[in-house]
Amino acid sequence: MERTQTLGFVLIFVVLVAWIWLNTPPTPPPDKHAAAARVDSAKKEALPTPTPSTPSAVRDMTPADRTGRFFRGRDTGKERIIVVETDHFRAELTTRGAAIRTWELKQHSTWDNHPIQMVERTTGDFGLLFGTMDGKTLASRDLLFDAPLDVRDVRLDDNNFEFEIIFTLPASNGGSLRKSYRFRNDTYGADVRYELMNLAAVVSNYEYQITWDHGVPFAERNSVDEAGFAAAYASAGSELTEIDASSLTEPVTQSLNGKVDWVATRNKYFGVAVIPISPTPEGAVLEGHRTAAPDEGVVERYSVALRMPYTASAVETASVRLFVGPLDIDVLRSYGVGLESIMSLGWAWLIRPIAEWVFLPLFRGIHYFIPNWGIVIILFSIIVKILLHPLTKSSMKSMKKMQALQPMMEEIKEKHKDDPAKMNQSVMNLYKEYGVNPAGGCLPILLQLPIMYALYAMFRSVIDLRHAAFVGWITDLSVPDVLVTLPFHLPLFGFSEVSGIAMLMGITMFVQQKMSVKDPRQKMMVWMMPIMMTLVFNSFPSGLNLYYALFNVLSIGQQMWTNRQDGEPLRKVEPKKKRSGGIFRYAKDMPRLKR
Questions:
Q1: How far apart are CA 16 and CA 567, in angstroms?
Q2: Helix-strand-coil split of the chain, %, nearest 5
Q3: pLDDT tens by residue, 142-163
């Protein structure tokens, strides 16, 4: 292996370290003095209403002070729970705020095998925020709605396909706020309709907000890793706005004005989106905050809101589509509004197209016939190796030529050791004389970088590989596998769990380096690069490490087969003859015409 290829490996390592540093959130120490940020403070500030009272002041208020004169007495009473179950989820709706109390996904589980819960159990979610003419800022979750008494728990299936329920909040002026949910058995979510009837004397500021206040509860073992994916989004036209809470002390807030296509929030594999149907929102508000968790963990919570116009008509309606489910790219695409853009699939200009339109369809196509995702990855490695075979073969030939030129290069370096410029020129002339491209051995490696990044992004974020087992201790191809747990944390790299597949990948890399490196001055690279790459890849998804371990095994076999072939003798390349004169030369050779 020549110096240029060594440089290529070093550059790959630098890029990998930079990639991990840029994409891995820091592990913050527990902050016992971090102030708890109010989730809906930004949304309330968007409404030009008086500042809400402090919690202690709220406890001292009378019911009339808390709710105002329009909804007096509606903050107390007994709530009713109505259960709606489909093939995809089980949701509990409550008359308190006509909100969603729980939402369990039936086909997915947490890392410790509990049902995935999409709503904070203690608070419920999905409500309205509005100001009133008597100077109050009210959240619908604090008010009790009425619901039909004859409505019982509902189970939807192919025979009982749809269900609708209407909640009503009467106002003292004779008006009312109605909120209806329409569920279908084949969707992750519901169509929701609001009706503001004769509330012109109640609702102030010509605006109200449809809110999702508490984000999506975390569901993975590594909260720091999951926090790296958690975010809130708003889509306006072709632009995607994203906020990411990275500070333990201050929440992050973003307010948008104008037409908004949708708002959304997510954790690593699951998300919530509110998609307006009519009328067009006047803007959106996003807010997020980050708090410390036990064992040096972190938790991020995000709130999103659509700012809806209110014209004080006798009857005004607003319709939205609510999505609460897994970040499955096909499901997100089915909404037809670009909701799939919230998935973390790498750089949009290069990596994402490879992951989204090449790897994921290919993986799912293979998986259609083979249920084990580990075997799918193995077959994928073989396919990639076959596709890259011409480049790899050319690279190996170039490396053999470089090794054959090594004695002549040593002579040149010894001859011109006092004149570096002349030495470099003579080496370049030697390359040209024998038709050797010094960068030929690095080209296949560089071409694999986008493949590696796309696989890295896909294995970490695509829900297909979540909890996908392979063999033995490899129970989840989307996270690092754990073969051994050390009694200490490794300095600098900060991990104590050792990946067996990463070790296998390092061993295969060592064997490959041993077969390739012939220059005695580069023997350090034989063991240094495998060790460093093993440490780096230890925190990578086991599916990605499986791909590279097998790819290395295939490369070793190809190298052994190439070494057994009778190599072509090193020959000088005949210089191309220059043909000068162009059209004038041809004109000169043509017979002259007689006049």
A1: 35
A2: 35, 25, 40
A3: 999 999 988 888 999 888 889 9
SS3 169: strand
One DSSP character per residue, 253-318 reads EEEEES---EEEEE-SSEEEEEEEEES--SEEEEEEEEEEETTTEEEEEEEEEEEEE----SEEEE
Q: How far is CA 69 from CA 77, 179, 200, 419, in A?
A: 17, 21, 15, 93
Residue 179: is it exposed, middle or buried by C-beta count within 10 angstroms (0-12/13-18/19+)? buried
- Give the span between the Cα atoms of 595 and 589, in whole angstroms: 18
Q: How far apart are CA 11 and CA 2, in angstroms?
A: 15
Q: Tokens 């009778």 correspond to what residue?
A: 566
Q: In what order do the strands lie in the sheet with 262-266?
A: 162-170, 176-184, 189-197, 315-326, 270-278, 262-266, 231-236, 239-243
**99 pLDDT exceeds 70?**
yes
Cα–Cα separations (whole angstroms), residue 134 to 43, 65, 202, 311, 313: 19, 10, 8, 18, 19
356-374 tens-digit pLDDT: 898 899 999 999 999 999 9
> 230, 271 in Cβ contact below 8 A?
no
Query: In angstroms, rounded to a whole number, what is the distance separating the alpha carbons of residues 589 and 326?
Result: 76
CA distances from 64 to 69, 73, 208, 475 (A): 6, 7, 21, 56
Would you say residue 450 has pLDDT above 90? no
Q: What is the CA radius of gyration of the chain?
A: 32
Give the integer Cα–Cα distance in Å for 268 and 496. 23
544: CB partners within 8 A, 6+ apart: 452, 455, 456, 459, 537
The residues pairing with 284 across neighbouring beta strands, listed in sequence order, are 256, 306
pLDDT for residue 297 is more than 60: yes
Separation CA 340–CA 217 (nearest Å): 20
**Cβ atoms of 106 and 90 closer than 8 Å:** yes
Q: What percent of the chain has pLDDT over 90?
A: 43
**SS3 of 138, please?**
strand
Residue keyed to tokens 């490899």? 474
What letter represents residue 570's amino acid? L
Q: What angle do CA 168, 319, 95 make, to 5 degrees?
A: 25
337, 275 in Cβ contact below 8 A? yes
As to burial, measured by CB atoms within 10 angstroms (0-12 exposed, 13-18 middle, 19+ buried), residue 361 is exposed
SS3 106: strand
What does DSSP assign to residue 81?
E
Whether 164 contacts 92, CB under 8 Å:
no
- Paired tokens of 208: 């109200």
Q: Do the Cβ atoms of 575 and 531 come closer than 8 Å?
A: no
546 vs 415: CA distance, rounded Å = 48
Both tokens of residue 183?
Answer: 């569920």
Sign, Cα dihedral of 236, 240, 241, 242? positive
| C-alpha–C-alpha distance, residues 395 and 443, integer Å | 7
* Strand intervals (E) in 24-112: 81-85, 89-94, 99-109
- The β-bridge partners of 232 are 243, 265
Asked if the model's pLDDT at residue 42 lies above 90, the reply is: no
Q: What stretch of H or E contains 190?
A: strand 189-197
* Two structure tokens written together for 29: 């120490």
Using an 8 Å Cβ cutoff, are 161 and 184 in contact? yes
